[in-house]
SinR family protein (Lacticaseibacillus paracasei NRIC 0644), 89 residues
Amino acid sequence: MNTFLISYDLSNPGQRYGDLSKKIKSYTKWAKLMESCWCICTDDSAKVVRDNLESVIDANDSIFVGKLSGEAAWYGITRNVTDWLHKNL
């Protein structure tokens, strides 16, 4: 199973945020790191994840999906998300 970082910018804040977060939460394993930054675990490729999420954003929005290698460092992330990252990276 792969762990992916998802980051996005929605042109009008809150515009399709609910739809996008619902789509991200449809993955079995997910964590919200920051306001516009999530991690998910899936057997899908980055392109498949991107295409899935692209279906709920507007043409003027942007999204990035990148596979994580296992090494990461962070600060100011909640304990629950920290535990999730330790288990899934």
About this structure: The radius of gyration is 13 Å. The beta strands are 2-9, 29-34, 37-42, 62-67.
